[in-house]
C-alpha cells in the first residue's frame, strides 16, 4: 500500500484519559540523516512503514526497521539517525495520555498488528480531506493508537493471546 503525506494538527479526537494532538504520515527529508535530541510535552507513537535507522533514548539505542513501533512518553529526550539511503516513512501520532508511569518501548509488530494498522490507515486516508478528520477517520486514529498501545504494553491486551512477545522496554 502506498500512502500519501498526511498532516493533521489538533484533530478533535478525544476520549476519557486520551486526546490526539497530531497525526502525520510523512517521509523524513531526503537530505536529513538525523534529528537532534528533543522532547515533546506529549506522548508520541511512531510506526516505521519503510526505511531504517537507530532510535536513541538517553543512553539507550534501538534499531528500527519497517514494522517497528516506538512509543515515547512525554518529556523523554530522544532522536533518530537514519541508516541506509532511503528516508524513512513513518506514521506518527502525538497524544496526551493521563498515565505517567510509562517507559519508552521499541517493538517489531507482528503481521496481524501491522495489517490491522495499515487497514485503519488506509480507511483514515479515504476519510481525510484538507487537514481534517471526519467521524470515521477519527475512529481509525483511535483504533491505530489502541493497537499500538496494547502491542507496546501501555494498555492491557484484549485477550491473553495478545500478550505474547512484548518486545524491548527501553530505560
Q: Explain this structure to me?
A:
The protein has 171 residues and is of the alpha+beta class. It is 20% helix and 37% strand. The strands form three sheets. Strands 1, 2, 3, 4, 7, 9, 10 and 13 form an eight-stranded antiparallel beta sheet that branches. β5 (53-57) and β6 form a beta hairpin. α1 packs antiparallel against α2. The longest helix has 17 residues, at 111-127. The model has no long low-confidence stretch (mean pLDDT 84).
Topology:
Elements: E1 6-9, E2 14-15, E3 18-27, E4 43-50, E5 53-57, E6 60-64, E7 68-72, E8 78-82, E9 89-97, E10 105-108, H1 111-127, E11 128-129, E12 132-133, H2 135-151, E13 168-169
Antiparallel strand pairs: 1-3, 2-3, 3-9, 4-7, 4-9, 5-6, 5-8, 7-10, 10-13, 11-12
Question: Key terms for this structure?
Answer:
171 residues; eight-stranded antiparallel sheet
